[in-house]
Amino acid sequence: xxxxxxxxxxxxxxxxxxxxxxxxxxxxxxxxxxxxxxxxxxxxxxxxxxxxxxxxxxxxxxxxxxxxxxxxxx
Length: 74
Fold this sequence. Notes:
Elements: E1 2-4, E2 10-12, E3 17-22, E4 25-29, E5 36-37, H1 44-62
Antiparallel strand pairs: 1-2, 3-4, 4-5
């Protein structure tokens, strides 16, 4: 699902950054401006799915260097 932020960023909802809000609640932040979406428009199962997808994508980005290759173990 594509989404547009107030700052003009456009992309997949799951491309946002997962953010812990406290009290066991999570949301997604815009990667450009940090605008927070608590995903309250979605039912709980859909929120969980979006957050898991955002975490998976974030981990995938963290595992790679800017060249797109995994870092070599020393």
